[in-house]
C-alpha cells in the first residue's frame, strides 16, 4: 500500500520569523479548500471514528504481513501507537513542539488527545496549529504505511509545500495581501 508522495525541498519564501515557516500563521487566511485539505479532513475523520487503516487492521484484512509497528518490536500498530506511544512518534512530536514554540513564541504541551483530535483552547492561532498538526500527522501516516522512519525535518518540506500552494492560490485570487 502506498501513500501520496510529497515534493521534496521546495524553496520557501523569506519570512521575518523564519525561512522555514514562511507564512505558517497566515496559512488559513485564504479559506480555499485545496485537494490536500479535503484529503486531510477525511484523514482526520477516520482517526476520530477509529477506522484509519493501520497495520493492525490491515493484518486482519490480510493486506499486511504483520500487525506490528515497523519501528517497534512486537507492538501492534494501532492509531494510538502510531501517533503517540511509538518511540519514533514521541520523538517526532517533541521536535514538532520545539519547532512550533520557536516560531510562535507560545507554550505547547501536546497530550495524546491533542495529537489525535486537535487543540481546543482560546488561542487565536488554534486553527493554524490544528492544521499544522493534521498535515504532519498525515505525513507520519504515509511514512509509516510505507515503512519509512519519519523524521521531523522531512515534514517541514511538506509544510513548506502546503504554504507554497496557499501562496499560489492567494496570488491567483488576488488575495496576496491577506496571505502576506
Outline the structure in words.
By secondary structure, the chain is an all-alpha fold. The protein has one domain. The protein is 53% helix and 0% strand. The protein is built from eight helices and no strands. α3 packs across α4 and α6 crosses α7. The protein is globular. The N terminus is likely disordered.
Layout of strands and helices, then pairs:
Blueprint: H1 35-48, H2 55-60, H3 79-85, H4 87-104, H5 112-117, H6 126-145, H7 152-172, H8 176-179
Helix pairs in contact: 3-4, 6-7
Please provide a brief summary of the model.
This protein is mainly alpha-helical. Helix content is 53%, strand content 0%.
Q: What labels would you give this structure?
A:
mainly alpha; 8 helices; disordered N terminus
Rounded average pLDDT: 76
Structural class: mainly alpha
Which range best describes the helical content: under 10%, 10-25%, 25-40%, 40-55%, 55-70% or over 70%? 40-55%
Q: State the total count of DSSP E strands.
A: 0
Helix and strand run = HHHHHHHH
The low-pLDDT segments are 1-35
Largest sheet: none
Beta-strand portion reads under 5%
Terminal residue distance: 38 Å
Amino acid at each position: 500500500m502506498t501513500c501520496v508522495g510529497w515534493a521534496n525541498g521546495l524553496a520557501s519564501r523569506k519570512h521575518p520569523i523564519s525561512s522555514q515557516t514562511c507564512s505558517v500563521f497566515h496559512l488559513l487566511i485564504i479559506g480555499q479548500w485545496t485537494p490536500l485539505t479535503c484529503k486531510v479532513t477525511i484523514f482526520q475523520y477516520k482517526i476520530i471514528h477509529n477506522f484509519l487503516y493501520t497495520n493492525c487492521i490491515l493484518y486482519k484484512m490480510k493486506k499486511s504481513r504483520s500487525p506490528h509497528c515497523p519501528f517497534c518490536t512486537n507492538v501492534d500498530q494501532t492509531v494510538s501507537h502510531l501517533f503517540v506511544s511509538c518511540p519514533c512518534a514521541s520523538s517526532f512530536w517533541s521536535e514538532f513542539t520545539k519547532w512550533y514554540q520557536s516560531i510562535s513564541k507560545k507554550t505547547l504541551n501536546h497530550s495524546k488527545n491533542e495529537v489525535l483530535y486537535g487543540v481546543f483552547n482560546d488561542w487565536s492561532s488554534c486553527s493554524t496549529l490544528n492544521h499544522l498538526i493534521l498535515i504532519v500527522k498525515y505525513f507520519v501516516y504515509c511514512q509509516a504505511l510505507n515503512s519509512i522512519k519519519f523524521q521531523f525535518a522531512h515534514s517541514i518540506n511538506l509544510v513548506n509545500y502546503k504554504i507554497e500552494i496557499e501562496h499560489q492560490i492567494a496570488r491567483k485570487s488576488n488575495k496576496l495581501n491577506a496571505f502576506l
